[in-house]
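ligand=N-hydroxy-L-asparagine
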Amino acid sequence: MKRRNFIKNAALSGASVAVGSTLLSCAENDKNKKKETITPVANSKVSLPLVIATWHVIDATAKAMEILQAGGTALDAVEQGCMVEEANEKGQSVGKGGLPDREGNVTLDACIMDKHGNCGSVVYLQNITHAVSVARKVMEDTPHVMLAGKGAEQFALEQGFKKENLLTEASKKAWEEWKVESKYKPIINIENHDTIGMLAIDKNGDISGACTTSGLAYKMAGRVGDSPIIGSGLFVDNEIGACVATGLGEEVVKTVGSFLVVELMRQGKSPQEACEEAIGRIVNKPNSDYKNFQVGYIAVNKKGETGSYSIHQWFSMTKYQDGVNEQIQSDFFNKS
Ligand code: SD4
């Protein structure tokens, strides 16, 4: 039903574009364009700065807020917030201590996107803890958007990043236990915190986002998920808002999830409505196997409104705004 509604909306907006280009004068077209303009931050009651992140990561949002309160940019805030979790060896889905692929390799995916729509990403990065910072270097210091594997590692080392063994004893032990049966199955809400996606609005009202992960535990060697794919794992449009995803990356990629959420906000949906609609795109597919995997989205719009939604229960968002740094349980689709 939800999906049908969305298709209907999309068809309607498509129709108006067609009318616009064929029948209306240029002046009328300009008038239509103005209608889409989002209320400027200065005229709304947004309480800035603010930061949101996937899962329960209050230390990470605290770090980001410290930067924002000091007048730092949203870009610095999301990078440094994500770095907190990358360095946390206890988190087995991000950075150092991440669970490896089937062959015992810890491989990281990360991306970052700024207020100008610039972006950088690394995929299948090994031996470097702060994948998000390498992604930022790709954005700022190369003519490219994405570096992969050995090339990404070589670039990081040239930039002065330290080579480290990311496979901790605890993750090695978990992998060895897994190898006994070697059964591959996506695990819903694998642990209390998972891929870190973070979105921030700074005191100037500018938005940036970042995402970092070791991907799915015991994935096939070479597998890359949604997290470093701009538009899937993350998308930022400083005029509209931003979204970041967590969960089974294949499903997010197939629906270009984060871009979809931002485009739905552009059409006038609230962040909450947009996240719900994007989850609807996944669960309403014919023969969707959604009962066996999790996907969660968090989103923020230019007005500082936020939303989060997932397929299954126990997805959460951490939000720091107005002096309160708290974990908020997400509403979810599968209530059966
Ligand atoms: C991936 N989306 O690699 C990531 C993993 C994740 O919760 O978010 N797990 O598919």
